[in-house]
Amino acid sequence: MKHLILAAAASCAVGVAAAATDCNKPQAAATPCDIESRVEATLSRLTLDEKLGQLWQCHWKTAKVAASEDASGLAISEKFLENARRGRFGSLIGKAGVEKYNAVQKAAMEGVGIPLLIGHDMIHSATTCYPIPLALSCAWDVDLWERIAAAMAPESIALGVNWTFTPMLDVALDARWGRIAEGGGADPLLTGLMGAALVRGFQGENLADGRHIAACAKHYVAYGAAQGGRDYNKVELADSTLRETYLPPFKKAVEAGCATIMPAFHSYNGIPCSANSYLLKDILRTEYGFDGMTISDYNAVLELIRHNVAADGAEAAALAINAGIDMEMVSSFFPDTLKDSIAKGIVDMKTVDDAVRNVLRTKYRLGLFDHPYIDEGEIKKGIDLAANRALAREAARKSCVLLKNNGILPLRRPAHIALLGDISGDAYQMLGCWSTKDLSNFENATLLEGLKADGADVAYTGLYTLTGRVDVAAVKAAIAGADIVIAGFGDYWENSGEGNSVARLELPGEQLKVAEAVKETGKPLVAVVFGGRPMAFPELAGMADAILYAWNPGGSGGWGLADVLTGISEPWGRLTTDMPRATGTCPQFYSRTITGREARYDAKFPNGRPYSSRYVDVPATALYPFGFGLAYTTFAYSNESATVDGDNVVFTLDVKNTGSRHGTEVVQVYVHDEVAKTVRPRRELKGFQRVALAPGETKKVEIAVPIDSLGYWVNGKYTLEPGFWTAWIAPDSDSGKPIHFEIAK
Ligand code: NOJ
């Protein structure tokens, strides 16, 4: 052990402060260098039991360490505190409030002298509830994502949490998969940008400043490729697909300094991710240089037995730690069996020490040794709840996507509006799958509240649920005196998120009857579609005069949606997934690789010509494609060009606002390698830019794309060959005029 301390000190010698570092004293601003010394000093004084304790995250209520609460349920039980003092666990999952946080930290600090990581899923809500991540991704707005995470960090601390299990970086190509709600959509570039922004927001510039929390990039990796879109199902992928589609967001998160990483539940090419050293060691540690901590997902070490790759807990723990898992979440085979496995030579002491190092390093980076307690007054002083709610409203309005508008929106006054559907008046249904679900915290802004607050003349009737029957006569009666009908459609958020895959993406229940009834009266219909995933609604798209896709917009959601409907705000969102026409076309994603027989659609064969890559009964194209979203104005693109300039391809064009309202366009750059060694995606997003334009205004836009981002993986090597590319500078992934550029030798 001494040897290691010397080695660390020696490597510090180049740094100025290193020689004077007293590793047992609090350090103001820890440099990576003195963190390593402190890690070694701490490690060297731990018993094996204490080390193994550091590698276990248990629940506050795990019976083994005694229920955390005493009989009153208010204080922490003495037995639980004793276990914290003895260092039986290194981390807790769950938020229990500041008082309990401080009590358990005090026990840990006074006993084993190592603070606890207290982790929880602070994903899109703490005391403020933002739209679900999939919705947020539709804002295509790096600054917004970072601001939200930065606002969530102190709110999380005030709830007794110093570590969040976010960002979720699973590129999701299949709308059936319930967890599509939790990530940044179907594109690796966008998911990576969003993930890195969230990491920056949660962790800040100085993770140890007491106002930030550790992030956790998950679920490593390719979880979104679960077969059939069924959660936890196996994933089988070519290495090239792994590297081109699923790994890039994780690489970005590592580069952004993400403190921790959580492997996914599923098996990847036959080996569960929690026992997969190719993923956890070869790629994550060796290729990406990740030196933070990994934590298995909830009971995932136990599930190695259920996956039948381990016979018992001892084997499961050995497999996991040998593959590169540092901390075990919930199941307790690390503390229970590793001692024995070390004695038997199945696990090396060095493997355990390295895992403990990764845990300690994370705790030092978080500043927990120096500031183990939360000063509740201080942290709350810095939280501006009103500002955060305003941010949630901004996020809601920027996340919804206007998919159709025949001119009925923005709503004109005076107009008497009939608002229909239980979901239009249901605050709980605004929240989404990872909200804290505590309505007492939030603004509880329903669509009804929002419309009223924005001054609309609105009469609300719940009338129907999304899954139940529809009384057509009652619908007609309710809208009799209305000029415009706004109706809620979609699905409840409980049908998305973890474990909630669906086999049907079509609108459930009898919702379409509502649209039919309104259509029969000839009144204009604005459909507001809620849900945690893309859905298939071609019939509604045919009938509605306008469609606003609202997702699960969060606690201030109703305000944000109404802002867009009334025109107080412009529509800002653009899809980050395709909207499929039918469940059977899934996985449906814009970046699918091309075939030798691409479908061609014409009047005679609207579903595609015979012997092409088509479905006989429905076009294989998206109902609304990735990148798509309308504004309240129109834009014209001209003079598109692509020029190689040094290390970049520079895409330029003129964008003109051809309408009569101010608007913001999201200009997107897609490329396709014309000749390559492997079959390439029909299009890949390589860059985008938001452009704000006054009516009649034209702006020149320039988007530089690094040439080295144009390559692909073949036979384990990142390859970039000279040759020709097609590119589209376009408002979505289906449109645009093809242009060409050449990368010369
Ligand atoms: C299981 C989920 O897969 C993961 O995303 C989450 O962070 C953990 N449970 C902890 O709640």
Architecture blueprint of SSEs:
Elements: H1 2-12, H2 32-44, H3 48-54, E1 56-59, H4 78-85, E2 91-93, H5 98-110, E3 117-120, H6 133-137, H7 142-157, E4 163-164, H8 188-203, E5 216-220, H9 239-246, H10 248-255, E6 260-263, E7 267-268, E8 271-272, H11 277-287, E9 293-294, H12 302-306, H13 313-323, E10 328-329, H14 333-343, H15 349-365, H16 376-381, H17 385-399, E11 401-405, E12 416-420, H18 447-453, E13 457-461, H19 472-478, E14 484-490, H20 511-521, E15 525-530, H21 538-543, E16 546-551, H22 557-566, E17 635-645, E18 648-657, E19 663-673, E20 684-693, E21 698-706, E22 712-714, E23 717-719, E24 723-730, E25 739-743
Parallel strand pairs: 1-2, 1-10, 2-3, 3-4, 5-6, 6-9, 12-13, 12-14, 14-15, 15-16
Antiparallel strand pairs: 7-8, 11-16, 17-18, 18-21, 19-20, 19-24, 22-23, 24-25
The structure holds 1-deoxynojirimycin (NOJ).
